Amino acid sequence: MSALASKLGLSLLGAVRVFGSSVCPSPQDVEAELAKSASTGAGQIAVVRLDRNPANGMVRLLLYDANGEQRGVQSLPAETDCRVMAAAAATLVRGLDLSLDSVAPPPPMLVFRVPARTSNPASTALEVGAGGLGSLNAGGAGAAVVALVSMAIEDSPLRPQVAFEWEMPQHLAVGPGGQVTWWRLWVAPAVEWRLVNRSSFWVSLQGAVPLGAAFAAGSGYPLDQQGAAFDLGLSAGLRLGLAARMHPASRSSDKLLPWVGVWGIAWALPHTLTVAGESAGASLPRLEAAVGLGLSWSQR
């Protein structure tokens, strides 16, 4: 309740209370006229102050609501009949009260809620494949088998890949009367870049770092020995494959699809094979070229 209402000790629960310095009409006369009409229980005007100007006889009405906020100012011309003045004052109060009640409330505020963006789970493309390779190096021809796993996220052309490869045993003549059988085994973290990704085929460029070991075992010597050493290389290649065809109601390919590829490998570490008591020796090939054919199962 406002300071104005509190000061007057008013119970602002329907009746309009009138006070002021006016004698004609008096606040009691105006209250009596207001009481003759319908109650303003839900009205806007709760308190009226009457002040009469002695110079010209006009009466000023200050109208307040229940919160003590001034809602209007009205004036009455001078009149000798105080009952007429009281009735006129009550009429002014009722008229203003009705006009305030009829004011349309402000239109409701429209709040548009922008739905939060829902993030779709990242789509992935997975490839699991295996193949056979034919290799060529300074020591001759060889063969290898490879298994690979690659994955792309959100249809990115960049695909992290891991390949496991076993280069089958090959033979080198080292010294008189014997030979050395050697082979390599490695894992190759790689990155594959889809240069072309059409609906029917794809082409990928691959770069890898083979990490593994070279093995060697002698035979036909007075004392045959064998050993292994760490190996490190760099590899680059190109693969061409058929695009996966999907089941209408499935996310995986309906069959294994073929691919072909070519690679070149350079081994960084030299490995020399020697025979005790002989000055001659041989080194494992450090440059190799390979051609491969394989099958892959894909999932999108």
The best one-word shape is: rod-shaped
Give the number of domains: 2
User: Class by helix and strand content?
Assistant: mainly beta
Largest sheet: 9 strands, antiparallel
Radius of gyration: 50 Å
Within the CATH hierarchy, at the fold level, what is the topology of the largest domain?
Answer: Porin
Give the termini distance in whole angstroms: 69 Å
Instruction: Indicate the CATH architecture of the largest domain.
Output: Beta Barrel
Query: What is the H/E order?
Result: HEHEEEHEEEEEEEEEEE
CATH class of the largest domain: Mainly Beta
User: What fraction of residues sit in β-strands?
Assistant: over 45%
Residue windows where pLDDT falls under 50 for at least 5 positions? 1-13, 248-253
Helix amount, in percent? 10-25%
Count of strand segments: 15
Provide the residue-averaged pLDDT: 77
Count of runs of 4 or more consecutive helical residues: 3
What can you see in these coordinates?
This protein is mostly beta strands and 300 residues long. It folds into two domains: 3-101, Double Stranded RNA Binding Domain; 124-299, Beta Barrel (Porin), CATH 2.40.160. 12% of the residues lie in helices and 50% in strands. It has helices at residues 3-8, 27-36, 82-101, and strands spanning 17-20, 47-52, 59-64, 70-76, 124-137, 140-153, 158-173, 179-197, 201-208, 211-219, 226-242, 257-267, 272-274, 281-283, 287-299. A hairpin with a 3-residue loop joins strand 8 (179-197) and strand 9. The longest helix has 20 residues, at 82-101.
